[in-house]
Design goal:
By secondary structure, the chain is mainly beta. The protein has a single domain, classed as Alpha-Beta Complex (Phosphatidylethanolamine-binding Protein). Helix content is 5%, strand content 34%. The strands form 2 sheets. Strands 3-10-9-5-6-8 form a 6-stranded mixed β-sheet, with helices on one face. Strand 5 and strand 6 form a beta hairpin. The longest helix has 8 residues.
């Protein structure tokens, strides 16, 4: 289980894989390409919204964005496998909304699932980019947690 980057508070975990462990192929382009179940614990009581970002910093052309969801209700404790969470979808580097699973061209890649608790909601529309979401979040992050999965195609 991964913990808050500050070592306390919020936690992000998945029954589909453990922190820094291999992700199963059903979550990837080699399988069903469904999103993992994610469990969020320890959201601060004063949070007004959550943001979920999944990206791959090991992509050949720079960090590749796989999933962006913002203005999720702060009461969200579970995102079911294969489901998009309640909230507003941002656009991925696949040029689509919603989850896009791992599909690395070569080698083992790291996939960072990051959840942020914010002191506000974001005044952005569906299709906002990760960069726009990160910019809008500045100064509003009250807690953060991450979970890292690994994947290499066979």
């Amino acid at each position: 289980m991964a913990t808050n980057i500050w070592g306390i508070g919020m936690k992000l975990s998945s029954p589909d894989f453990s922190h820094n462990e291999r992700m199963p192929s059903y979550l990837t382009c080699d399988g069903q390409d469904v999103s993992p179940e994610l469990n969020i614990a320890g959201v601060p009581r004063n949070a007004k919204s959550l943001v979920l970002i999944m990206d791959d910093p090991d992509a050949p052309r720079g960090t590749w964005t796989h999933w962006v969801v913002f203005n999720m209700p702060p009461e969200t404790t579970r995102i079911a496998k294969g489901n998009e969470p309640e909230g507003i979808q941002g656009i991925t580097d696949f040029r689509s909304l919603g989850y896009g699973g791992p599909c690395p061209p070569s080698g083992t890649h790291r996939y960072f699932f990051k959840v942020y608790a914010l002191s506000s909601t974001l005044a952005l529309k569906e299709g906002a980019t990760k960069h726009q979401v990160l910019q809008a979040m500045e100064g509003n992050i009250i807690a953060q947690a991450e979970l890292v999965g690994l994947y290499e195609r066979k």
